[in-house]
């Protein structure tokens, strides 16, 4: 198994161990909508662990670059928040909540690119992602406010 696959598996395993905290996007301090949160949900009992952990894998956190650490932090938050959102009983609300978390993860990844990236075109794409995803989050949150009970 290559390093990328092992690291990916370790990320998935590590996300199951995180506490449920709202995802905050630094640029605009967007928070995960209250209507998407699932109270009393214990992700550690969801059977998501895939056997790896960040300390014993091929790339321990201490050996990661600052870029990799920042990306990893954003991905962990996104996965836990997305799992919380898709556990909603209403299929429409579940979809919207999952997509909001997914978009927040895309914004987080893009912010990491803006901070650490060197390529002008990649940074321009990252900014386009941020702009588009923030607008869609606003639209989806408005839908939640109107439709979610």
Helix and strand pattern = HEEHHH
Question: Terminal Cα separation, in Å?
Answer: 45 Å
**Total domain count:** 1
Main sheet, how many strands, which sense, barrel? 2 strands, antiparallel
Q: Roughly how much helix do the residues carry, as a percent range?
A: 55-70%
* Strand line-up in the sheet with most strands: 1-2
Count helical runs. Answer: 4
What is the oligomeric state here? single chain
Please tell me what the overall shape is: flat
Q: Uncertain runs with pLDDT below 50, 5 residues or more? A: 5-28, 44-57
* Gyration radius, rounded: 16 Å
The class by helix and strand makeup works out as mainly alpha
Rounded mean pLDDT is 76
InterPro entries: DUF305_CopM-like, Ferritin-like
Pfam families: DUF305
Protein name: DUF305 domain-containing protein
Keywords: Signal
How would you characterize the overall build of this protein?
The chain has 149 residues and is mainly alpha-helical. The protein has helices spanning 3-15, 66-86, 91-116, 120-147, and strands at 24-25, 30-31. The protein has one domain. Strand 1 (24-25) and strand 2 (30-31) form a beta hairpin. Pfam families: DUF305. It comes from Rhizobium mongolense subsp. loessense.
SSE inventory with pairings:
Layout: H1 3-15, E1 24-25, E2 30-31, H2 66-86, H3 91-116, H4 120-147
Antiparallel strand pairs: 1-2
